[in-house]
């Protein structure tokens, strides 16, 4: 139950496995005893290592039917809310990506909480304040050396 995802996020696969080996969480039964926040931490740990060499081993160790799929799909459901008026951007919505999201019932948590807000955290004219929100996630990572002077 000692899942410190912020500490393991930037470690190598081997360090991740060594830290997890000392955990008391070993079976599906152990996993089912965890509260929601602890389960989320375990899922986040495994997700952060989705490209790990030992993912199959981890999936057997922490087998579950619960799946959290995350990613930056650049999905556009409403071109008037989710696009700027740039001449360089296509307003074409990928039918494959659209169907993929619909079939898996994927949602955009930000859009769900802000259904009518037109805001672009990814836009070229990104404000430093928007980037500062990520500071806790970057702590201890290779990106932590980015200074405020790069505004």
Feature tags:
151 residues; mainly alpha; 2 domains; disordered C terminus; Endonuclease/exonuclease/phosphatase domain-containing protein; Endo/exonu/phosph_ase_sf
> How many helical stretches?
10
Query: Kindly, what is the distance between the CA atoms of the first and last residues, rounded to a whole number of angstroms?
Result: 39 Å
The largest pleated sheet is described as: none
Radius of gyration: 19 Å
Average pLDDT for all residues? 56
Total DSSP E strands:
0
Helix content: 40-55%
Sequence of secondary-structure elements = HHHHHHHHHH
Low-confidence stretches: 1-27, 44-51, 146-151
Task: Give the domain tally.
Answer: 2
Question: Given the C-alpha coordinates, what overall shape results?
Answer: elongated
Report the β-strand fraction as a percent range: under 5%
User: Given the helix and strand composition, which structural class is it?
Assistant: mainly alpha
Explain how this protein is built.
Helices cover 43% and strands 0% of the residues. With 151 residues, the protein is mainly α. It contains 10 helices and no strands. It is elongated, with a radius of gyration of 19 Å. It folds into 2 domains: 5-61, no CATH class; 79-150, no CATH class. This is Endonuclease/exonuclease/phosphatase domain-containing protein.
